[in-house]
């Protein structure tokens, strides 16, 4: 039995189109081509979306990214710090014992003074830096007795901080969670692990097994008002006076035995 091949509906309709139908189709196709050309030209001639040059540049405190004369992003003193609601908790105390409205205002002043701008209020502020959070106040003197006790107090405090972070699941490292669990039942590790953990926590930029003054700010700024010995203690940790505390200096200063501090865990 033979079957007749069935033609497609489209092909069949094309065979029976009248002349004027072809004219309409040609016009329709021409219009489509014209629109396609217009759209292509539109997207071809539209300038590409410009990437913000400042997007990947991170500026320090008191600075902002600006585009220089040759179109390159650079960090410059911030023109105006964000306005705050006057909360005393935003205020900070500098190493020159001046209270600033915010961290931004302190480092803006440092920046404009370093650049000898007319905005500088006092030229000594070219070297100003954060001492501690809050309004400047009279601190309890750090006596010899308090200084002698400080390594133990600091290690105990770090252990409590570490344990609290573990409870909140904010240690961000399973290994540290396991180590602090070990330390809870071992007095020696209770002292050692938090000391090494804090060094690693501070040694961020650059990550070079040394902690600079700038890297120490997260631990000193909130603590100085309550613990006046922390600054002189950490200054004494820098045995070779190179402006940085090595992992060995940190461990020795906080009473770790030889071998623990050099491991840099």
Automatic annotation (TrEMBL):
Keyword terms of this UniProt record: Calcium, Disulfide bond, Glycoprotein, Secreted, Signal
The UniProt record lists the keyword Calcium: yes
Signal peptide: none
GO MF, any single term: calcium ion binding
Domain SPARC/Testican calcium-binding: 140-253
Matching PROSITE patterns: EF_HAND_1, OSTEONECTIN_2
Superkingdom of origin: Eukaryota
InterPro entries: EF-hand-dom_pair, EF_Hand_1_Ca_BS, Kazal_dom_sf, Osteonectin_CS, SPARC/Testican_Ca-bd-dom
Record localization: Secreted
GO cellular component: extracellular space
Protein name: Follistatin-like domain-containing protein
Organism: Thelazia callipaeda
